[in-house]
């Protein structure tokens, strides 16, 4: 500590002399400049701008100076502080930029890199969901027969989903218990309950003759359990041509069943009713597990010997007329089946929930499919 100042010149206090402060600043600038990283810079800050720095010590001396000297010394110290702070900030921004550059370099990920390990068992491969796969397999069967893929929206006009397909307003499937209405019952929009509305969309937009399949998602108010899910998938088929008959329908579906369940599989039509087909049938496939000896232990067919696979029939002339098709010239057949059910039969899956829960261990089993 210096003795109390009697003179106005702060030079009398050595620490406050222009030379001392000038030296302190020069030394500090030099050292700040030499810092190589943020850690060193922090150290330099403590040394040259901290409580025990020369500048701070000099600052403390100011208090003992006469008023005029105080002003000069104060300015001198403040200028030194500003110079050092500005230089410190400049160096800090340089070092931060350098640090970020290094991080970007060292943590770079090469997204094109091929895994070095030649050991396939160490590689984790993704796999598409079996529903996607079955949808493509099914579609391919029809593409090979000259069909095209048709699409429609999942949020569908009630008219396409029901009315255009001859499903009357009083039909139980249209109730709030079964169908998801968007916003309210009278909105005119539903989450489609079947892929059949794509039939009408295809008939209204495509040229005849017409051969299409439409795989897609459908929605019904069902609880999720071993055999139901509120969101599931169907594939719809529609053929409109001159002279099509039930025989063409049966031949087409027999070929479809063979490709899905194997050579020699037996099918049967069971009379049924759908508002949009006349006549209508349920398509059953003989249980390929217990074959001709139905046994009550068979989980696949529950001992009946047959599996209900889908619905089908000749397109109701009323539906053709709604689409403006001349029923004296053209006839058509249609069919629709569930993808989840198909998967369950094909791979003996007993719980439908496995297909919606997204457990990768389930999907991984279908990683490669032998067709
Ligand atoms: N849409 C029917 C359902 O969801 C399935 C169906 C039956 C589709 C007969 C058809 C058909 O095209 O002709 O239960």
Short description:
With 371 residues, the chain is an alpha+beta fold. It has helices at residues 18-34, 38-49, 54-61, 67-106, 130-143, 158-161, 197-205, 246-261, 317-322, 339-347, 360-364, and strands at residues 148-149, 155-157, 189-191, 210-219, 231-242, 267-274, 277-286, 306-315, 330-338.
Features:
alpha+beta; 371 residues; 7-stranded mixed beta sheet; 2 domains; two-stranded antiparallel sheet; disordered N terminus; BirA Bifunctional Protein, domain 2; binds 3,4-dihydroxyphenylalanine; single chain
Give a structural overview.
The protein has 371 residues and is α+β, with helices and mostly antiparallel strands. It folds into 2 domains: 10-106; 130-364, Bira Bifunctional Protein, Domain 2 (BirA Bifunctional Protein, domain 2). The chain contains 11 helices and 9 strands. β6 and β7 (277-286) form a beta hairpin. The chain is elongated, with a radius of gyration of 41 Å.
Question: What is the strand and helix layout of this fold?
Answer:
Layout: H1 18-34, H2 38-49, H3 54-61, H4 67-106, H5 130-143, E1 148-149, E2 155-157, H6 158-161, E3 189-191, H7 197-205, E4 210-219, E5 231-242, H8 246-261, E6 267-274, E7 277-286, E8 306-315, H9 317-322, E9 330-338, H10 339-347, H11 360-364
Parallel strand pairs: 1-4
Antiparallel strand pairs: 2-3, 4-5, 5-9, 6-7, 7-8, 8-9
Bound molecules: 3,4-dihydroxyphenylalanine (DAH).
3,4-dihydroxyphenylalanine binds next to β8 and β9.
How many structural domains does the protein architecture include? 2
Radius of gyration: 41 Å
Oligomer: single chain
Helix count equals 11
CATH superfamily of the largest domain: Bira Bifunctional Protein, Domain 2
Structural class: alpha+beta
CATH top level of the largest domain is Alpha Beta
Helix content: 25-40%
């Amino acid at each position: 500590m210096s003795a109390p100042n009697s003179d106005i010149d702060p030079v009398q206090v050595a620490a406050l002399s222009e030379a001392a402060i000038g030296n302190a600043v020069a030394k500090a600038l030099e050292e700040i400049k030499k810092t190589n990283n943020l850690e060193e810079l922090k150290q330099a800050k403590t040394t040259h701008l901290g409580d025990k720095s020369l500048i701070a010590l000099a600052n403390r001396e100011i208090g003992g100076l006469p008023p005029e000297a105080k002003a000069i010394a104060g300015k001198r110290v403040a200028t030194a502080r500003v110079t050092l702070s500005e230089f410190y900030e400049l160096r800090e921004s340089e070092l931060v930029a350098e640090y970020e550059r290094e991080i970007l370099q060292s943590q770079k990920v090469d997204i094109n890199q091929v895994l070095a390990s030649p050991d396939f068992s160490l590689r984790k491969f993704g796999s598409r969901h079996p529903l996607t796969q079955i949808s493509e397999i099914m579609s391919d069967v029809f593409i090979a027969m000259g069909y095209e893929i048709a699409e429609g929206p999942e949020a569908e006009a009630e008219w396409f989903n029901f009315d255009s397909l001859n499903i009357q307003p009083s039909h139980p499937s249209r109730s709030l218990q079964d169908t998801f209405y968007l916003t309210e019952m009278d909105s005119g929009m539903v989450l489609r309950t079947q892929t059949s509305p794509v039939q009408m969309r295809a008939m209204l937009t495509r040229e005849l003759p017409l051969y299409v399949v439409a795989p897609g998602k459908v929605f019904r108010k069902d609880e999720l359990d071993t055999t139901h899910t509120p969101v599931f998938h169907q594939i719809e088929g529609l053929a409109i041509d001159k002279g099509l008959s039930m025989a063409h329908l049966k031949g087409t579906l027999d070929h479809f069943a063979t490709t899905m369940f194997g050579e020699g599989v037996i099918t049967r039509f069971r009379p049924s009713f759908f508002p949009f087909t006349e006549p209508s049938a349920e398509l059953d496939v003989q249980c390929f597990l217990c074959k001709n000896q139905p046994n009550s232990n068979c989980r696949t067919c529950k001992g009946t010997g047959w599996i209900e696979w889908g619905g089908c029939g000749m397109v109701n002339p009323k539906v053709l007329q709604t689409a403006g098709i001349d029923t004296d010239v053209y006839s058509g057949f249609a069919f629709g089946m569930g993808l989840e059910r198909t998967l369950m039969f094909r791979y003996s899956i007993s719980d439908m929930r496995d297909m919606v829960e997204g457990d990768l261990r389930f999907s991984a089993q279908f990683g490669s499919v032998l067709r």
